[in-house]
Structures are given as structure tokens and as C-alpha cells.
Amino acid sequence: MDRNRILELTADMTLEEKAMQMTQLSPDMFYHRCPSNLTGPLREWRFEDEQLQEIGSVLGPSGAAYLRKLQEDYLETSRQKIPLLFMSDVIHGYVTIMPIPLAQGCTFNPKLCEEAAEAVAREASAAGLHVTFSPMADLVRDPRWGRVMESCGEDPCLNGRMAAAMVRGYQGEDPADKGRIAACVKHFAAYGQPEGGREYNTVDMSRGVLRDFYLPAYREAIKAKAALVMTSFNTVERVPASCSKLLLRRILRQEWGFDGVVISDYAAVEELMNHSVAADALEAGEKSIHAGMDIEMMSGVYAGSLKTLLEQGRITESEIDECVIRILELKNKLGLFENPWKDADEQEEKKVIYCREHLETARKAARESMVLLKNQGALPLSDSGQVGLAGPFACTGNLLGGWHCEGRPENTRTLGEALEEKLGGRLVTAMTQPFSWGGDRDVPDMVEEAALGLKDCEVCIVAAGEPEWETGEASSKTNLRLSKNQEKLIHALHEAGKRVVLVLFSGRPLEIGPVLEECDAVLQAWFPGSAGADAAADILCGDYNPSGRLSMSFPRNVGQIPVYYNYYNTGRPAEAKADSYVTGYRDCPNSPLFPFGYGLSYTDFTCGGLEISREGGKLQAFVRVRNTGKRSGKTVVQLYIRDVSASVVRPMKELKDFRKVFLEPGEEIRVEFTITEDMLSFYNEEEKWVWEPGEFDIMTGLDSEQVETRRIVVPAQADREA
Ligand code: GLC
């Protein structure tokens, strides 16, 4: 449909129809007419039937047959026959569930992340969905916040590369194509820094920190053509994101040129009243419209106030039309006017959902996302002897993590089954009772039975972690240790002289310091998805050499949070004078337990011989990486840069590029990085994107701590050309 037709449709709509086109409700609210239990502010909405017949989009429906019927029924009664948009939280999988995004970040493999997103989109589109509320590009530094699982971690570069990869995977060349869905990048902006790691809490940071760390990844998703942006619940500079002109008008639309649809988070428009920036629903509606909020999710402010606001002259019809036109353009972009059902197809659903190809992709992604944190020879498991398996994650399919959409834990292979297939009778399991959903926050004391049951096993795998329902939204915690009885089990097996292999299932970095010494090996498995058990077994049995590198630092303890690698220096750096008047704690080092970019392998790698070249006006770094071990494997060569002295403080190091490389034993390659002006640039005090001539440290390494450095001087442009 051409734009003129869109403009005609808009001009022909009544004000009520426009307000409803800008409203999104769940099916039980508008289709089944039964007020559901709304999360967030519990509200009893009173929509008239005529209003509900003109709604613009639907939250969270699924299934080709259901969505075809829902669209048909809707179009039958709708006056203008504008098709519904179907949107849902397909965060890391539809039915085939991929590793949680925090784990996908650990692959340092955007191509694999894109492949995973492509498989996810194939399933979701066959099930009739048009939009996914993903990628979540919030930068995260605080594992007390349960939603770190949805992010790709603490670094702007890695987060941005992964967010862009997911957008490409979901949308392909054109989200209207078969098997593709539109991407909605969220939560704009800076939702990942709630004070105290407490869910929905205030976010407050300087404009410079917002620019340096929290905005870049959203921008990469938008550069990748994400079709929608979802605003966050939090404030930015004391203004809630859902009515922030700074975020939505100045940065998103004017600076970044975003011309897609902006949708609020769940009831976030109505929550402007709770934030005390709106005295009533009218003011909430007024402020959201002025900021350019196109779709209000799951609240009725627009439906109830636009008419009055217009009559009172507080908003203009053209502001409303601007929103409606963007929504209709999105529907047009997806081809819904010609084909309101897009790809909803029950045959296609049966063919692609949970298919072998997607499970293979899930297994590849899970293998590459797991991080070997410690290994004193216990892994890979030897070819003989009995292997014990205990712990609440040993025999459960609850390996999918939060936001697992239509995932099927009941069909998900367990670690016990996957290990049984490889080890046969060598595997002995004991006390594998899982966490009970919503039950006690600990498992029973399993020491006696486990110790007895595993007495003949030299190596014992303990599959431990946090219950998956304690990850994701509304899941902040102040205690990140393993539960008491899990720690007790590890201790007892260690005391009994067993070699303990801890396999950790979690949606965040946990506080594993208290058990680390008692474990011979630790494999961070995250929530690895539908094929996660097989992937873990592949690694434990040596069929896959682990290559994951941490996307988020592991704290030594909760008191150390936030701990991250790209910190600004201070006037009294810890490395300075020997006296105690330097930045630090009396009871804990400043460094994390495990740093960003870290991960072990079953082979060994060296990275060195860093050289800087300026051939032909190009600034390049070259480094030699060698596999000095006995088996092939992958490692991630990381390029960090530090602006040694600038007009504002700069991080001690910032990841600017990375290369995942595969090397045979003894093989050596020379990795080349081109250093661009963009990599040297930052937002100065006037918020101008600049780079300043002077000294820069160029660093390369295999994690963010062990790096080789070359200090260079980059002269001003004129000097360089002289
Ligand atoms: C939730 C989440 C958001 C999600 C939305 C729709 O509250 O904050 O990430 O996309 O509501 O389910």
C-alpha cells in the first residue's frame, strides 16, 4: 500500500479509532473480554466494545490457528479493516529455546547469535507472530538484578554487536519476508542500572555515563534497522523514559534518525502517575504524546484521554496522526494490508517448530556459550571409572531460563539423560531432587544419601545453581550464593575426597567464592536452552572444547557489586602508593573473581608480539596467537583501547573489537585489527562526538585482565597529514 493510502486511512479515522490503534492489550483483555490479572499496577479497565473492535495490536498471543482466527474475527467487525499487529516476548526462543542472551554474549560469536535468532524467527512467524520484543540491549553491571539474563552483558561493544546480530537474524533483509519477524529493541534506556540492583528502582547517571556505556548498544540495534523501540520503566535524569523528550525526540529520532514505532513497556504510560510526573491520566497522556510515544501497552490512558486533551488544546491532531501513521507504516512494511496473516500456517508450524535443525543450532549456541571457569585436571572426564551426578539440575528439564516463551521444559533433555548416553553404566546419580516451583527456596539436605550413593565415584558432578523462576523480571536478589544445602553438598563431597565438578545453571553471575576452593572444576552453563544438557555433556566428556568467554564479571561477593572491567580511573588508583589511601576495600580486592572476557579451554593459547603499524595512513594492530596445547580449540582475541588523557575521564580500557579464532595444536596465526577514528572517539562535555589527539594505549589479550600494551601517540589530523 502506498503512503498516500496510509494518509487517507488516517484521515478517515475517528479520534476514538486513532486512540485504539495506539493501544495494545492482551487477548484476554479484548478478545475474550475477561479482565485478567495484570502484572504491574492491577487495574480494572473499562473499555467499550466499540473501542475494543478498533484496537491496533495484541500482546503475547501465540499459535497459527488461534492468530488466524483472532485476525479474521477482528477484521470482520473492524470498520476500516486495518489488520492487528501480533507482538510477543520471543527473547531467546519460541519453542526451541536458545541459551539466554547473557550466555549468547559469552559466545563472542555474532554470526552464531544471528543464526539462532533466524531459527527463532522462523518458528515465531510460522506461529503467526509479527514482532518480537527483542533484543534487550540494556547494559548490565549488577547481578542482583534478575534481568541481567536478558542482556548480552557489561560491555557496550559486545552488547551492540550481539543486539545488531539478533536484529539481522529476526528481520533478515526485510521483516515482511517469510520466516522473518520485526525486532523491537528494548528497554530504552538504561533500565539495566537500577539503584541497588533492585527491580524497577530509580536509575540515575551522568549524561556522560549514559553516552559512554548505556546508549551505544541500542544505537547498534537501530543501525541494524530494528523496526521498533520499547521504552523502559525507569527514569533517565529524573524523567521517566516513556515521556522523555531527551530520549525519544532528541536522541532517538533527531540524532539517530529512528523513524519506526515506539511502544511503551507494560502500563508504563499509566505509571507516569506513580512516578509523580503526571497528576492524572490526562497529564500522563499529554506528556507521552508530546514525547512521541506511538503505542501504549496494557493501559488505557490514550483510550480515555486523547479526546479530552484535544478538546482542551493540550495536544494536537497532527501529534496523534504522527503516531498513527508510524503504526500503519509498520503494518504496511510487514505486508499485513495485503496478507493480514503473514506467515501463520499450521503446516509450517508443524514443520519448523522444535525441528532437528533448530535443536542443532541450539546445541551449537549452548556449547559456545558455556564458560570453563576453573579446571584442575578433572575435565574432560576420563575414559574410565564411575562418575557421580548429584544436585537439583541433574535430572530436570528446567534449563530454559526466564522468558522461555512456548518452551517445553517437560520435553527438554536432562543432564542425566545426556550423560547417560555418553557414559552408560559409568554414571551413578544420587539426590537429584530439583527445586520445587514456588516451593522452598532450597533443596533438601542431600548430603547423607549423595555421599552414600556416590561412594564409589572418584569424580562427582554437582549440577547446581538458582531456580530458573528466580531469573528474569521482578527477580532481584540480595543474596547471590548457592543455597545452603547445595553448598553443603559440595563441601561434603569435597571432604569425602571426591573431585567435584560444579556445573552452574544460573541467569546471572552467582557468588561462588565460598565453594570455589572445594571444586576441581567449574563450568558456567547459564540457562542453556532446549539442547543445553547435550551441550554440557559434550563439554564434560571432551566432545567439545569449551570456548565461552565471560560477557559479565563474576563478583567476589555481593558487597563488591558493581564490579566491571571498563571502569574510570580515580585520583587514587589502587596500583598507586603502598599506603591505604588508595581506592579499595579493607576486606576484598578490587578485581572480580573472574573478569569480563575470561574463559578456559582444554588446550592452551598464547597471545603476544603486539605490533602497531601506520602503513598508508591506516592505524593497525597485529598480534600473534598460538595454540600451544594438544588439542584444537577456539579462543577470542580481544582488542582494548585506552585514551590516556582527555578532556573528560576515560575508561581504563574499552573493548573495541574481537576475533574468535579456531586453531589446531601448534598452529599460529597473525590477527589484524584496524583501529578507526570511531574507536578513539567519545562524547565530550559538550556532548560532541570527538577524538582528541594524544596518547592511547592499544591492548590485546585473551581476556580483559591479561593484556599486552603498546602506547602510541596519535597526532592531530593536520600533523598526521604533514
Ligand atoms: C514486561 C517487560 C518487557 C516485556 C513486556 C511485555 O513487563 O518489562 O520486557 O516485553 O512487559 O511482556
Can you characterise this structure?
This protein is of the alpha/beta class and 722 residues long. The protein has 23 helices and 25 strands. An eight-stranded parallel sheet has the order 9-6-5-4-3-2-1-10. A six-stranded mixed sheet has the order 11-16-15-14-12-13, sandwiched between helices. β15, α20 and β16 (521-524) form a beta-alpha-beta unit. α2 runs antiparallel to α13 and α17 crosses α21 (532-540). The chain is globular. 54% of the residues are buried. The protein binds alpha-D-glucopyranose. Alpha-D-glucopyranose (GLC) binds at residues 59, 89, 133, 186, 265-266, 473.
Task: Please give the structural blueprint.
Blueprint: H1 3-12, H2 15-21, E1 23-25, H3 27-30, H4 49-52, E2 57-59, H5 64-77, E3 85-88, H6 101-105, H7 110-126, E4 131-132, H8 156-171, E5 182-188, H9 207-214, H10 216-223, E6 228-231, E7 235-236, E8 239-240, H11 245-255, E9 261-263, H12 281-291, E10 296-297, H13 301-311, H14 317-333, H15 346-352, H16 356-369, E11 371-375, E12 387-390, H17 415-423, E13 427-429, H18 447-453, E14 459-465, H19 484-495, E15 499-505, H20 513-516, E16 521-524, H21 532-540, E17 605-613, E18 619-627, E19 633-643, E20 654-663, E21 668-675, H22 677-680, E22 682-683, E23 689-690, E24 694-701, E25 707-714, H23 717-721
Parallel strand pairs: 1-2, 1-10, 2-3, 3-4, 4-5, 5-6, 6-9, 12-13, 12-14, 14-15, 15-16
Antiparallel strand pairs: 7-8, 11-16, 17-18, 18-21, 19-20, 19-24, 22-23, 24-25
Helix pairs in contact: 1-14, 2-13, 7-8, 7-16, 8-10, 12-13, 16-21, 17-21
Bound molecules: alpha-D-glucopyranose (GLC).
